[in-house]
Write a structure and sequence with these properties.
The protein is an all-alpha fold and 87 residues long. Helices cover 52% and strands 0% of the residues.
Length: 87
Amino acid sequence: MKPRELGRRVTARDLVWLTVIVAVAIVLRLPGLTTGLWRDEGSTYFDATAPTLANPDQVTMLEEEKITAYYGGGTLYATPARSEPLI
């Protein structure tokens, strides 16, 4: 039996496009790696945590927007039955 062919064959043009895309991705990513890969991943974690207040007695407009966006955005994904927002 002949194995079934899935999709089409890879051409030289496909490899050129792949090389261009990878080269652009490397050029765009290199400046962000000056602090190291794990530092970059750690900052992503801390960016995803709930915003805090600089002064507990006063909330600035920016802090209010961050808090509203963080908790408001989280309610879009709050139901386990859905993996994407209703909007």
